[in-house]
Each structure stands twice: as structure tokens, then as C-alpha cells.
Design goal:
92 residues, 3 helices, mainly alpha
């Protein structure tokens, strides 16, 4: 399972747990949801740190791969292809 999915499910799970804990309290439903959102965000900052860091590393790796592919495509389109012309199989 990817780190982003784990982190997202963890955040949703914490929100649901906090909302269920606040449900018996005599407050407006909108206020309960807002408090649950704030409390779950604060708790997830500490409890889900590992998953958040793992997701950030995964996203950074994907960004580096996309940037490298983008540069490779730009050089290929500009004619600066690093491949040897003798290695081509299309006969040119």
C-alpha cells in the first residue's frame, strides 16, 4: 500500500475516532465536526509523523523521476539525443 494511502486513511480514521468521542457531548453538529477536524489534525501531527515523512519521500522521488523524464524528452525533441545514431533500428 502506498504511503499516501496509508496516511490518508490514518487521517480519516483519526477524524472518525475523535468525532465519535465528541458525539455524546451536547454541542451543535457543525461544531462537533469542526472540533473533530482540529483535534484530529493536531493528533495526526504527532501520531502519523512516520507515514507523513514516508509519503513526502515518495512524492519527492516521483518528482525527481518526472523531472528527469521531462529533461530526457526535451533533449530528445531538441535533437540532443544521447543515443548513438548507429544504434537506431529504424534505418535512419
Amino acid at each position: 500500500m502506498s504511503a499516501a494511502v496509508k496516511y490518508t486513511l490514518g487521517r480519516i480514521g483519526l477524524f472518525v475516532v475523535v468525532l465519535l468521542a465528541l458525539w455524546p457531548v451536547d454541542l451543535n453538529v457543525f461544531l462537533k465536526v469542526m472540533l473533530a477536524l482540529l483535534f484530529s489534525a493536531a493528533v495526526s501531527f504527532f501520531l502519523l509523523r512516520g507515514w507523513r515523512d514516508e509519503m513526502a519521500e515518495e512524492m519527492a522521488g516521483a518528482s525527481v523521476r518526472r523531472q528527469a523524464e521531462k529533461e530526457r524528452l526535451r533533449s530528445a525533441l531538441a535533437g540532443d539525443d544521447e543515443s548513438d545514431p548507429a544504434d537506431r533500428t529504424d534505418g535512419r
